[in-house]
Amino acid sequence: MEEKLQKRLLKHYHNMNAFIQDCIKANKQIYEYIHTHMSSTDIKATGKIGFGGDDSLTIDLKAESIFINHLNKYGNIYSEESGYISSNKKTNIIIDPIDGSDNLASNLPYYGTSVALEENNKIIAAVICNLATGIITYKIKGSSIEKLELKTLKSIKNLKVDNNKMGVFERAYTHPKLCQKLFNKNIKYRSLGAIALSLCDARNYKFVLFAGSLRQFDIAAGVFMCEDLNLYQNDEFLIVAKSIYDFNLIKDTINKL
Fold it and tell me: CA 22 to CA 97: how far, in whole Å?
């Protein structure tokens, strides 16, 4: 019985590692395309409204196609662009092909990709890539977060930031009253425009606050990366913070709106 369990666990981790490697290959292909072949046509709107409700850019669809080619063998695809693509698997691959595509289209270097592997309604692996810096971050359930330099595939030591200077408030423009309250309390933040990337690096900030509709392909991978941090989520807000003091400060400020 114990031998069968060990074999099953070994097969599981082999499959997880294979999934991570294929995510890395997909991201490497997208990264190389963006930095060597991308043209102005790629950052134009296609006129196609994606499943997430936004007008898809050409690069969104190209990135999605690359992910599908590499990952559809692992499960059904659930993507911001095309929605649910069933392959009758027991697992789901949740994808945001380009996280922060407006940033990319504006030549603002904060954009990337987000992929999560879901089994039995739980995320068991995630990969987030910053396509501007070429840094890829991944995590398998039960393991620590790992980072690689995408060009060389060399491991990068996780940066430990003890004196967090500021937070990240994604979609701050949708909540001017909350912005005013944060200003009154002298709480500094930035609104960077790519929620998966912001969640991925939440340990470097005082907090990450996300306002608006919480779509699965926006947050699935990022929330999984933050499972050891303080986290609160309702229909309108997502709060993540390393410090319980910062976490409660932001939560209380929101509750007093």
Answer: 14
pTM above 0.90, yes or no: yes
The answer to whether 59 touches 157, Cβ cutoff 8 Å, is no
pLDDT surpassing 90 at residue 89: no
Alpha helices (H) in the chain, listed in sequence order: 2-36, 58-71, 101-105, 176-184, 195-200, 216-225, 244-255
Which amino acid appears at position 6 of this protein?
Q
Beta strands across the sheet bearing 83-85: 83-85, 76-79, 91-99, 112-119, 122-130, 135-140, 146-149, 154-156
Q: Which pLDDT score is estimated for 6? A: 47
Angle between helices 58-71 and 2-36 (to 10 degrees): 150
13 has pLDDT over 70: no
Structure-token match 């987030």, residue found: 128
User: Which residues lie closer than 8 Å to 70 by C-beta, 6 or more apart?
Assistant: 22, 23, 25, 26, 29
Do the bridges between strand 189-190 and strand 167-170 make them parallel or antiparallel, or are there none, so unpaired?
parallel
**Statement: residue 3 has pLDDT above 80:** no
Amino acid making up residue 77: I
> For residues 2 and 142, what is the distance between their CA atoms, to the nearest angstrom?
20
